Amino acid sequence: MPGSGTDRRQPRLEGGPAIILVEPQLAENIGMCARAMANFGLSDLRLVAPRDGWPKKGARSAASGAAYILEEASLFATLGEAIGDLNLVYATTARDRHQLKPVLTPEAAMPEVVRRLEGGERVGILFGRERNGLTNDEISLADAALTFEVNPAYASLNLAQAVLLVGHEWFRVRHARARALSSTDMGPLAAKATLLSFFAYVEKELDACGYFLPDERKDTMARNLRNVFHRLALTEQDVRTLRGAITTLVQGRRARRPKVPAHAHVEGTHEPSAGNG
């Protein structure tokens, strides 16, 4: 759902390689590129000679909350001007251009991008026109080509999709590896005393149910069971939850046992009545 994942209380991630759109044609595509950039903490958008000028009507609505990237975008008349301050430039392409330069996937390129940026250099990634991409001359200005592993029978990507793929890989290498997917505090691992008590309780109840058979396998089976629980890295709360669940099962089983009435007749214990002498 558009905007459903936006949390304006979180700090905005910025920086990364410059995203350079060469003669973009559609306002909606520029807006969606800005949205893809915001998704992955990219903020330097450079536009080279947009077909219908800039700003374009419709770009802002397509950005869906990432209008700040459009507002801060830089406009250039030529590609040379757009890359003039950069130290390293990649050109995205969907096909082999037979140029003597490295051809990398985003996965292979991003560690070097991160290293260069952290060293104070500037990096940019070129994206071509929606209809026919970058020209060979434009690609010749780049240090390396960047391509995507897609279905060879249908290798055409939407402009914003290409930016999204590059942005995702940038974020994964630069940010995501150091960030847990979940920030839920699960609490400390259970103390060994808690675990030992839990093991003793579980093993006692299992023994009462006849689980440890044959007898000579009891020690091995108990060790295997303890190792299963150890692999779960149980917290104090986990142990309390499990112990409570097992206690409920045990008590429920006992409660379901049929009760023998105190006055029930037991065969072989009948006492003769008085006066039968």
Describe the structure.
- By secondary structure, this protein is α/β, with parallel strands linked by helices.
- It has two domains: 18-178, SPOUT methyltransferase, trefoil knot domain (Alpha/beta knot), CATH 3.40.1280; 192-255.
- 40% of the residues lie in helices and 10% in strands.
- The chain has a seven-stranded parallel sheet.
- The protein is elongated.
- The model is unreliable at 269-277 (pLDDT under 50).
Sum this structure up briefly.
This protein has 277 residues and is an alpha/beta fold. The protein contains 10 helices and 7 strands.
Identify the notable features of this structure and list them briefly:
277 residues, alpha/beta, Alpha/beta knot, seven-stranded parallel β-sheet, 10 helices, 40% helix
Q: In the CATH classification, which architecture of the largest domain applies?
A: 3-Layer(aba) Sandwich
Number of strands: 7
Biggest beta sheet summary: 7 strands, parallel
CATH topology of the largest domain: Alpha/beta knot
Helix and strand element order = EHEHHEHEEHEHEHHHH
Shape: elongated
Question: Radius of gyration in whole Å, from Cα?
Answer: 34 Å
List strands and helices in order, with pairings:
Blueprint: E1 18-22, H1 27-39, E2 45-48, H2 59-63, H3 67-71, E3 74-76, H4 79-82, E4 88-92, E5 103-104, H5 106-118, E6 123-127, H6 136-139, E7 144-146, H7 159-174, H8 192-208, H9 218-231, H10 236-255
Parallel strand pairs: 1-2, 1-6, 2-3, 4-6, 4-7, 5-7
Helix pairs in contact: 1-7, 5-7, 8-10
